[in-house]
Amino acid sequence: MGLLSVLTIFIPLPFGRGKEWVSFYIARRYLFSKKSTHAINIISGISVVGVAVAAMALVVTLSVFNGFHDLVASFFTQMDPQLKVTPVRGKTVSAADPVLLQIRQLPEVEVATECLEDQALAVYGNRQMMVRLKGVQDNFDSLTHIREVIEGDGTFELHAADMHYGIPGLGIAYQLALGYTYQQPLKIYAPRREGQLNMANPTDGFVEDELYSPGVIFSIKQPKYDKQYILTSLDFTRRLFDQPGRLSSLELRLKSGSDFEAVKARMVRLADGRFYVHDRYEQQDDTFRIMKVEKLMAYIFLTFILVIACFNIIGSLSMLIIDKRHDVVTLRNLGATDRQITRIFLFEGRLISLLGAVIGILLGLLLCWLQQQYGLVRLGDSEGSFVINAYPVSVHPSDVILIFLTVLAVGFLSVWYPVRYFSRRLLR
After folding, report:
1. pLDDT digits (tens, 9 = 90+) for 77-132
2. Region class of 107: left (phi > 0), else alpha (psi between -120 and 50), else beta
């Protein structure tokens, strides 16, 4: 920027008025004008690129974490209800509890299913394993998307007359060598709730019953369910665990268009501290908490990389201050104070941060879109080895705003002290 350009700026705007605009205008001209030393332009360009790459990495990385988060959530929703009411104390509660009756009679509730689940021993042939036996009512398929994850030649059935069916997860079917249709009854053992164990006849301390195959298994692709759960009828589990008329959870689905948060808050008030009311994310709190911590750690590490990238801005500004010494003398003669001159270089650093943030975020969004459309980065070459073929990506607007503010904050703070220091030392 030449001396004539400086003069034309300050003639219409004295330093007593429009100070911020004048400083900003000069900084903008300095950023895009050709310097006397070509290396300054190169370093300024490198500074912008460094900030842009860090911003792009933040967008892409956080979007990938969001993609995995949404993917895992989609798996859990196949089995998990919208809302799950469980007792605060004890494992079970009476199905006729007045609070539960009030909750299930709310006008927004479309489907309510009583469930009773507990640990049991499953034995098939010479194989055995501990399982989580979950007894549900016949409307369970209306409550969840369980039919979408059923595999086999049969249909989703829990009982037929006095015969009770057991639908195992894929992992259990593999461990017990059941297949889609197991030919022999699956024996289920549960400890008796009353009486003492007779060591002379240990089997007398267990309740034994049998489940039959409906010709299907379920596969949610989550070990928590596939390797632990067997679905059966509620009557079977109540008889096996000796829990007549009781339930371990009341699972609910709301009518379409209901205000979810308002209905949940109303249920919490009705529960009055006696019952937990958990949505799908709260039901899997441990899993999603770990994912949030991983995402937070990735954000922190990439922010540190952004801080390092901002050191290029400091080097660029220090060289610019040296290059513009003669302009500074002219500005002082026109009445500019040291503070106003310092603001020029502060604006210069902030413009570099802003430009890098905008370019980086736009590039990050472009890469995310390309990944969503074409799956450029794949998880593996083996067909069927993964649930999906390419890395999932989900861009959340809140993350984009957070990244933009982070880049600006880091860029602004990183140049504040160095500019003030170099201005005092080099502009005397």
Report:
1. 778 899 999 999 999 999 999 999 999 999 999 999 999 999 999 999 999 999 99
2. alpha
* Interatomic CA distance for residues 233 and 167, integer angstroms: 10
Torsion of CA 376, 380, 383, 384, to 10 degrees: -110
Give me the pLDDT at residue 423, please.
Answer: 63
Cβ contacts of residue 282 below 8 Å, gap of 6+?
Answer: none
Q: For residue range 279-288, what is the model confidence (pLDDT) as tens digits?
A: 988 998 888 8
Which among 207, 38, 63, 28 is positioned nearest to 133, based on CA atoms?
207
CA–CA separation, 109 vs 254, rounded Å? 4
Question: What's the CA gap between 285 and 249, in Å, rounded?
Answer: 17
Spatial separation of the C-alpha atoms in residues 26 and 30, rounded to whole Å:
6
For helices 311-323 and 38-76, the axis angle rounded to 10 degrees is: 160
pTM, two decimals, is 0.75
| Coil/strand/helix, residue 336 | coil
